[in-house]
Design a protein that fits this description.
Strand content: 15-25%
Strand order of the largest sheet: 1-4-3-2-5-6
CATH class of the largest domain: Alpha Beta
Bound molecules: pantoate
CATH topology of the largest domain: Rossmann fold
Structural class: alpha/beta
Number of strands: 9
């Protein structure tokens, strides 16, 4: 496994491999890797000749009062895990490699970024879209793998790639869950033992939405309020949203005539968690 930090060096090596006919799969991450990330790398290994993981805690996607400074940084263990599953390249740039002095260009995110995370975390998707496009330009991959846990992020990146004609395929991958249903996230390590027990409330609320639909409920407002009821009963400390939205536009939905996604963001202790579930409509 090669670990490189210079954009010029990794571009040269990947470009050479690509020209020889290798299919390159890219997994952008901010490190603090867990099984969710590793499943993306395994998928890249399965579908491609070369798997590349990036590790960069991107400052431009964190708001001034968010957890950039304390975001977990576990490079040694990340590299060990990636090497163990046969990742071929790891790109670990410095801040200056990504944002050298004088860097002033940022991506205006697409419309699908406007609500939910985009509203609650102003500037977040501008930072995500910018770093992801920069990584796509630095690392000439054919496919990029992203976890569906960050559902809106995948929608934003897919729309950006479509709108800006970026020559890469976006491959969303299933959320990996703990045995009790909690979605794996680097931020789960912030949870105290008591908060970890409460965090499962998000999955219970999402499961409730599915079971209501399976039981024939078709009133979206009723389902949303049942989701909130579960979160309040846990209780979580605050709810940013618990909504049923269109899987493409992420606009609120009032009908269940075609598939929808239930999305939740809630704070448990000091940790902000997000999760979602694509709901089956019989
Ligand atoms: O999902 C993440 O870890 C980050 O938002 C990403 C896509 C690596 C961009 O920094």
């Amino acid at each position: 496994m090669k670990v490189l930090s210079s954009p010029e060096e990794i571009y040269a090596q990947l470009d050479f491999l690509r020209r020889q006919g290798n299919r390159i799969g890219l997994v952008p991450t901010m490190g603090a890797l867990h099984d969710g990330h590793l499943s993306l790398v395994r998928e890249a290994k399965r579908e491609c000749d070369i798997a590349v993981t990036t590790i960069f805690v991107n400052p431009s996607q964190f708001g001034p009062n968010e957890d950039f400074a304390k975001y977990p940084r576990t490079l040694d263990s990340d590299l060990e895990q990636l090497s163990a599953i046969g990742c071929d390249f790891v790109f670990v740039p410095s801040n200056d490699h990504i944002y050298p002095p004088g860097h002033t260009t940022f991506i205006e995110p697409p419309a699908v970024a406007a609500n939910w995370e985009g509203k609650i975390r102003p500037g977040h998707f501008r930072g995500v879209a910018t770093i992801v496009l920069k990584l796509f330009n630095m690392l000439p991959a054919r496919v990029a793998y992203f976890g569906r846990k960050d559902y809106q992020q995948v929608a934003v990146i897919s729309a950006m790639v479509r709108d800006l004609n970026v020559p890469i395929l976006i491959q969303p991958c299933e959320t990996v869950r703990e045995p009790d249903g909690l979605a794996m996230s680097s931020r789960n390590r912030y949870l105290s033992a008591a908060d970890r027990v409460r965090a499962i409330g998000l999955w219970h609320a999402l499961s409730k939405a599915q079971s209501m639909i399976d039981d024939g409920f078709r009133n979206v407002a009723q389902i949303e309020s049942a989701m909130r009821e579960i979160l309040n009963k846990v209780p979580v400390d605050s709810i940013d949203y618990a909504a049923i939205v269109d899987p493409e536009s992420m606009e609120p939905r009032t009908d269940l005539d075609s598939p929808v996604v239930a999305i939740i963001a809630a704070r448990v202790g000091t940790t902000r968690l997000i999760d979602n579930s694509l709901l089956r409509i019989q």
